[in-house]
Amino acid sequence: MSKILSQDEIDALLDNVSKTQSFEQIEKARERSVHLYDFKHPDRVSKDQLRTLRTIHDGFARTFSTHLSTILRTMVDINLLSIDQVAYSEYMMALSEPSCIYIMNSKTLDGRAILEVNPQLSLLIVDRLLGGTGRSLTSELREITLIEQNIIRKIIDRAMEILNEVWHNIVPVDFEYDSYEANPQFVQIAPASEVAVIIFFEILVRDLTYPLNICFPYFVLEPIMQKLTVQSWLAQIQRKAPEDASVVIKDKLTYTKVPLIVRLGQKKITLRELIHMRDGDVIVLDTKMKDDLSITVKERIKFVGRAGNLGKKKAVKIIQSITTEEEKLYE
Predict the structure, then answer these.
(1) Domains within the chain, CATH numbers bracketed
(2) Could you tell me whether strands 300-310 and 293-297 are parallel, antiparallel, or unpaired per DSSP bridges?
(3) 305 with 262: CB under 8 angstroms?
(4) pTM for this predicted structure
(5) In angstroms, rounded to a whole number, what is the distance separating the alpha carbons of residues 245 and 261?
(6) Quick check: 78 and 212 in contact, CB under 8 A?
(7) 258-308 pLDDT, tens digit each
């Protein structure tokens, strides 16, 4: 005959079951929180910093596409595809040979960076700058000549200037041209195992697509990584915007030309008198020499002046400024 359990034994069994279930749940939760980490491809740039890098280089893509559209006299679109973190050796092995590698040296950061342009895009730019259509290029890759390098150099310099401009809101980088290389094996700006941040772009010219990328070794960006956050970027934008805006407005107003017209007087004549008018005829106006004259800016009366001479030239002396409320009195 089976033994009947007491109430204390039943409670003990139920207590053990609940403890076992809670322990299993904890183990499952721990298993879900574990994720694989690749020590060969460490993520040394946070997601927040990657978003800031994307924002910076989105501005580079927009500005540089406008510049290329103007130079090539055709529509050019540049899209930022991705930002990856890879070993520098892997990036070098992924580049085609020959390639167009422009090494950039920074005056403020400790190290160099790379601007890599597709050779076919370089040939298309050269062909368009020399008056060609850009459609007669062969699909075979070849190294661009020294003359072609000199032709495209101005566009590369402008690309570096734009890169400096978009980075200026975070930190001045002051990249400038250092050297050119066609073989990726001869470009050693970082140790092979060093992490590199690669920004990949695609350039759309008519119905053709060309790659372009920028490579920053991590040790170059490391001193400014704490500034590559959305909060830091927005704070610097807000702090610099009023000063920069006022300087830009002041510069534009300094060189802005506006028409300044002095109304010497009026006179109504008939069409017959106008037809028979000849050289030497005198038109008597409805004003006198000492009368005040209205001075208009863009057809709005802004000053009151008086006619006179300044040396051998005719002149008008401003004697009063007109406010917006007083304009109706002089109409």
Answers:
(1) 47-250 (3.40.1550.10), 260-330 (2.30.330.10)
(2) antiparallel
(3) yes
(4) 0.59
(5) 30
(6) yes
(7) 888 888 888 888 888 888 888 888 888 888 878 888 888 877 888 888 888
